[in-house]
Design brief:
Blueprint lengths: L8 H6 L3 E7 L5 E6 L1 H7 L9 E2 H4 L2 H17 L3 E9 L2 E13 L6 E10 H59 L4 H28 L4 H4 L1 H16 L2 E2 L12 H21 L4 E5 L2 E4 L12 E2 L1
Parallel strand pairs: 7-10, 8-10
Antiparallel strand pairs: 1-2, 1-6, 2-3, 4-5, 5-6, 8-9
Helix pairs in contact: 5-6, 6-8, 6-9, 8-9
């Protein structure tokens, strides 16, 4: 019984997987009665030219033994079976998913033949791998969006709440200064408190600006970085210079976003971790000149 009626003719002729039909002899041996063109090409034989070829005559003894074992399992179980097998088909040993289905006589219900397929695991998994890569890319994009949302919320809270508390503290210091204006020692303490509050306000303004997402989609990477570096300089009193090629706007959005994130992180690192007079950056590399230990002040120049 040919399996060809069970498949659409086009699928049979052009399917990349190996499709076949098997007859079962009275002695329990298995013979190929049909193969699709892909299977015939892989074995270098033609069933049409010479009907019914024994499985052991079409391939290596090891492969034939593995396939016949799957056929025996199909008959014993009386239903479809699927096994993962290593087969040398098409001149290359690969991993295949072998699926075999029984064909029963409509009158007696006994199994009279088998139909099946060998599908290379790499082709089976190709669609799955592509789907996983797409899902991972979408997840990465969503995580970046969530990160920006969190950073924006932190920046907003720091600006709207923490800065207001510092301003209130500064006003209270001014009131205390008036009350205790006759104390010479107290005047220096007030100066130190004022300086600390002023430094905290400047740092918060700078970090909230660094945390705030930039308008990459509307402005493009070059303009966005130029505006970002200028705004950073204004808030930190840094003298900045920037060299950026216009070709960066031709990068994909994901790469532009990554580049912007690198610039943000580099400036944040220069601000918080590099006490010094100079911060320099060129082609994505940033650094800060060192100062004497314990001397904490804003760097004065960045490239």
């Amino acid at each position: 019984m040919s399996p060809r009626p069970a498949y659409h003719e086009l699928h049979w002729m052009h399917a990349p997987e190996y499709l076949f039909g098997l007859q079962i002899s009275d002695a329990g041996q298995f013979f190929y009665e049909s193969m699709n063109p892909a299977f015939e090409r892989s074995l270098g034989i033609s069933i049409e030219a010479d009907r019914k070829k024994a499985v052991h005559d079409c391939m290596s003894a090891e492969d034939a033994k593995s396939i016949c074992a799957s056929c025996d399992a199909c008959i014993v179980e009386g239903g479809s079976v699927r096994h993962r097998q290593h087969l040398t088909l098409g001149g290359q040993r690969r991993e295949f998913d072998t699926t075999i289905h029984p064909v029963r006589d409509p009158d007696t219900g006994s199994i009279v033949s088998l139909v099946g397929s060998h599908r290379a695991v790499d082709s089976v998994d190709a669609v799955g791998r592509l789907a996983r890569r797409r899902a991972a890319a979408e997840l990465d994009l969503r995580l970046l969006s969530l990160q920006e949302e969190v950073q924006q919320r932190i920046a907003s809270d720091l600006h709207d709440s923490t800065c207001q508390h510092l301003i209130a503290a500064s006003l209270n210091v001014m009131r205390l200064r008036r009350v205790l204006k006759d104390s010479d020692g107290g005047e220096k303490i007030f100066d130190d408190i004022d300086a600390s509050i002023d430094q905290a306000q400047r740092e918060i303004r700078a970090f909230t600006y660094l945390l705030h997402p930039q308008y990459l989609l509307s402005d493009g990477l070059k303009t966005t970085i130029e505006k970002f570096v200028h705004g950073f300089a204004v808030r930190t009193s840094l003298k900045t210079s920037l060299h950026i090629a216009p070709e960066v706007d031709q990068l994909s959005y994901e790469r532009q976003r990554a580049m912007l994130r690198i610039v943000q992180e580099a400036l944040a690192n220069c601000l918080s971790s590099c006490p010094g007079d100079t911060g320099e950056g060129r082609n994505g590399r940033y650094g800060c000149a060192r100062q004497a230990p314990g001397h904490r002040q804003w760097p004065r120049h960045a490239k």
